[in-house]
Amino acid sequence: MRTETPPTVRLEDYRPSDHLIDRVELDVRLDPHDTRVTARLAIRPNPAGRPGAPLVLDGDDLRLLALDLDGQPLAPAAFRVAPSALTLPEPPGRPFTLTIETRIDPSANTKLMGLYRSNGVYCTQCEADGFRRITYFLDRPDVMAVYTTRIEAEEAQAPVLLGNGNPVESGRIEGTGRHFAVWHDPHPKPAYLFALVGGCLDRVAKSFDTREGRTVELAVHVEPGKAERAAYALDAVERSMVWDERAFGRAYDLDVFNVVAVSDFNMGAMENKGLNIFNDKFVLASPETATDADYAAIEAIIAHEYFHNWSGNRVTCRDWFQLCLKEGLTVFRDQEFSSDMRSRDVHRIGEVRTLRARQFPEDAGPLAHPVRPRQYAEINNFYTATVYEKGAEIVRMLRTLVGESAFRAGMDRYFSDNDGRAATVEDFLVAFEAESGRDLARFAEWYERPGTPRVAVTGTYDAAERTYRLDFRQTRPGAGDDAPPLVIPVRLGLVGPDGPLGEATCPQVEDGVFVLDAFEAALTFDDVTAPPVPSLFRGFSAPVRVDMAMDDADRLTLLRHDSDGFNRWEAAQRVAARLMIGALRGAATDAGADAFAAALGAFLDARALDDPAFAALVLALPSENDLADEIGAEIDPDAICSARRALRVRIGASLNPRLRALRDALAEPAGTPFSPDAASAGRRSLRSAALDLIAAADPADGTALARAQIAAATNMTDRLAGLSTLALLPGSAREAEFAAFAECYVDEPLVLDKWFAIQATIPEDGTIERVRRLQTHPAFAMTNPNRVRALVGSFALANPTQFNRADGAGFALTAETVLALDRTNPQVAARLMTAFGSWRRLEPVRRAAAESALRRILATPGLSRDVTDIAGRSLA
Ligand code: 0A1
Ligand code: ZN
């Protein structure tokens, strides 16, 4: 560990590699502490590189054992070696083979990058730059090679040996207790997509025929004894394959597709070619251990990693600045998949909630960056909501602009023109320009600057002319004063007192979309027979903040009558947010809250049973973090929490009989088998949303109902919802249920994560002590990223009142954890640090406390590059 001022990598400095590697033959002899890797690399000068340039292979924490060039040991004067690079100052100016033997210790690899052991299973994580921890290499995505991998291990320790591509050969090495497997991947790939796995694993499998006539063996591998929990993931793999063939014409291209679940993993999952490696949280599911949200996340992440096979693997990124090219596009693809599997409106609302909860605050704080960043000190810190989620929104806007059919044709062209290549954002846009005939040069600006745009809108009705005029004005906070206007697709329509005003027309609106491409623009609708309510940014057609003065009554008209599901939900959210923010500024009235409750009641009467999932979202008021984001400055989380609680109490009281009736109507008849499908999940979510509001207004009743729900629960969704409701109701019942839960799931780490998380998010003063106590619980481990995220991550990112305590105790707890973790796993430590991302928007006392915690972190000797980067940018 060393303190370093991280060198900055800049997009403008990109140049092609001076050398290329065409073929890699790896021989990996696995051993818990002394793994030997022999890499035979077929290297040649790159015609596009500098002639005669030295060969500098990347390394990280490696020990070199032997080095040959074309079969001859290299003289010591012919190379230089360090743990972080292997240099041949004068490599041959012709193709040659370099054979490198290195030694690594997978058991000591606590960073979980490169080759490591998770619960005894050997596995790898190479994105973004982990391959250099396995062997010296040109570890950059534009160096693409064909890999053959021989894996050898003690058979008792690792009976299953998996690699990229197709299996070629396997066998025992007689008399040694060892065995081997050889895998060959015919598709050239960058090193970040390399993977291997060795361990004791059970599996579920099935075969799948692609529409191109290839029979593929699909398999999901999990820890012994957990195979039946892998069935849902396997089914999701198959559904993903079918969907990508139909929706994007993309078929799978190998004979096997393996998914492996491991328990120690820094991120969600990884799309290694033919061998996706997953955090087990996103594979394992049974009704007793996984919630509906878990099932949905498994489906989405299985799909995401699978879809990368084309968007990321067949077509990869030229450099890490283009990360959104694979990630934004693949998120868009997995969102579309989930929307097709589930309810599109409900899914869209979920996508926007995530974007607003994670990306908007990032874009408004010190860690803001463009979707295509122009520089980085540590690339692993750029797997962000901006690159992923805002990146996906850009693809969605592109589809809105060019239309469905040109979009699909553009995707086909992008894949075929760039197949087997490392591409750029420009390569992506060119494909859509060619298919749509539209100049996308100005649209490309979306990739270039940070900040969430604002669009201010005013509407004017002219009764005499029967016209309605909308004036738009866009601004780009955070993007710089010279930022040009963005091309913003505004999907919109007008709504009257009884429903959408279909007859109103406007020449600039085509297929319901107006393209705002100047700082200011106006629209006029004709034939508007009554004062309308505008429904703007339907389906959240652009990732912007919309400022429009509109009274609650008009918004509630939208809740009732808009044809757009997203905007119906949005209308209720806006009213709720206005009421809560008004209350904390002393400007809201009880009458406003009561009118809102009445409107919600009418809405529930009319629609709740038709679409329970949607109704549950309407009842879930904007979160404390949503409100903080909207307030934007001088934030007092305690005041926000009280204002939100007060509105929930009022609504809960006013709707109590209805909510109880709804719960009864939605109760499942005894003996109904559990199904994770969207409709069943929707009914469960509305029942629990109702419980939550009942409990807010009547804690005694809420406690009784929550306990009854827990006692009667036949699945984790209902049980956990009961426990979450109880978590907000201090008292002995809560503690008794917490204790009973822990006892019941003592051997289920993923379930205990939920228990850690619920307790870490209790908005009470005692939570700090509770979290400290839980850090010493036998089930907690700083070495496991899921445990850390469940306990400390939930505290720092999802408990605004306690993380932001005015006495600084929340910041101190988080800072201590970050510093302790940084010694073993800097990547996860750096992620935890992002909780400080909104510190400048706090009121002065909290702001000062956060700043001093940040300064303390930054001043700590021996800090990793990962944490130095986040702390440094947070304070800049
Ligand atoms: N590419 C993966 C996410 C991922 C990124 C980085 C990792 O290590 C630093 C690991 C996984 C995905 O998008 O799913
Ligand atoms: Zn991805």
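The mean pLDDT is 97.
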